[in-house]
Amino acid sequence: MESRNPLIVVGVCVPERQSYASRLARAVGGHLISLAERMPPPGRQHVPLLPEHPSATPRAAGIVADVASVLDLPHLGLANDPQSSVICVVDALHLQHDLRDGEPLLQAAADGDDRADFGSRARRAVSYLEAATLISFVNWESTPTAELSLLMALASHLSPGARVRLSRGPAEDLRALRSARQEPVPLLERAGWVHALNDEHDPHMTDARVTTLRYEQPRPFHPGRLMHTLDDIDSGRLGTLLRSAGFCRLATRAGILARWDQVGSAIWIDPLSAEVETATTAQDLAFTGLDLDHEGIRNALDSAAVTDDELTAGPAAWRRFADPLPTWPVNVEEAP
Questions:
Q1: How many CB atoms are located within 10 Å of the residue 126 CB?
Q2: Do 223 and 310 touch, CB atoms closer than 8 A?
């Protein structure tokens, strides 16, 4: 079986991913390359993404790339090829743990490199699922049927356009992917949260316990109350929130649109740009999890938004609110 386009194999469970990539390369008669990060010389900031074996000559066809989990797909040229296939290898025994894992990807990193952050391994796990065109579950044979239904529905909610399979081998998985005849979708438009914000979230696989909620709110968040709300949601009182993402505004930084990126117990709220056009709502977020209390989550988030009196007081008063969230880079300025 000859590979007709680049095959990108990802996953945070290293032995399973490496074994799958090796077997896939043999099945398609392709060239297996292992992509890893090479540390830059002292004084250089650029970190090249190169094959571990430079003698391997990448070609547009016949490539099976085993991608080390320290690498982010949007920065990988092959993954951005619209004809490439991203195969996410998931260990059925570990998926829920992987999405709640507080471990960092790197134990130490340079300033500004968030791979040493708490929860960055889980963040990478969910980003691979969201980018996938094929999600292949391995080590599933001993998992109860009800649990498999939940896991496959969860994967489908996170990546509604992906083909989700209980793997019976890379060759068979690839045949199933190609038989689906999926239209190419840009890498950054595949995530379930993007589908949800576009009102296009329609996962192929469902389970009563797995749901996705879209939350909109025209008022900015009071950052102090938002922290209490996040702790409340993380407690599990409103269900098990595994993933949320989207866009938000903080009252203390109201002129800046921020990117909301949460997985497990870790959350990143980072500035985009003061030049981004004002959205129709201040908050536009998607939440995916198990047994979620949709009304309870909406009410909790609403309680974190500015009140009528605070709204009337205006931005000058908002800047005096307690703001326990991490500071943003000094070069990020509010819109005038």
A1: 25
A2: no
Write out the chain's pLDDT in tens, 336 residues: 444 578 999 999 999 999 999 999 999 999 999 998 754 433 333 333 434 343 343 444 488 999 999 999 998 888 888 778 999 999 999 999 999 999 999 998 888 899 999 999 999 999 999 999 999 999 999 999 999 999 999 999 999 999 999 999 999 999 998 887 777 889 999 999 999 999 999 999 999 999 999 999 999 999 999 999 999 999 999 999 999 999 999 999 988 999 999 999 999 999 986 555 555 568 999 999 999 999 999 999 999 999 999 999 999 999 999 999 999 986 555 544
Q: pTM (2 decimals)?
A: 0.89
Residue 333: which of 215, 253, 222 has the closest Cα? 253
DSSP three-state, residue 115: helix
Q: How would CATH label the architecture of 210-318?
A: 2-Layer Sandwich (3.30)
In the chain, alpha helices (H)? 14-28, 95-98, 120-131, 145-158, 170-180, 192-197, 223-234, 294-304, 308-313, 315-318
Residues of each domain in the chain carrying CATH 3.30.1220.10: 210-318
CA distance linking residue 133 with residue 165, whole number of Å: 11
Q: Which helix or strand (DSSP H or E) is residue 93 part of?
A: none
Contacts 24+ apart (CB under 8 A), 91-97: 91/11, 91/13, 91/16, 91/137, 91/138, 91/139, 92/137, 92/138, 92/139, 92/140, 92/143, 92/147, 92/148, 92/151, 92/166, 93/139, 93/143, 94/13, 95/137, 95/151, 95/154, 95/155, 96/151, 96/242
Distance CA 38, CA 271 (A): 29
Q: Judge whether 207 and 155 are in contact, CB under 8 Å.
A: no
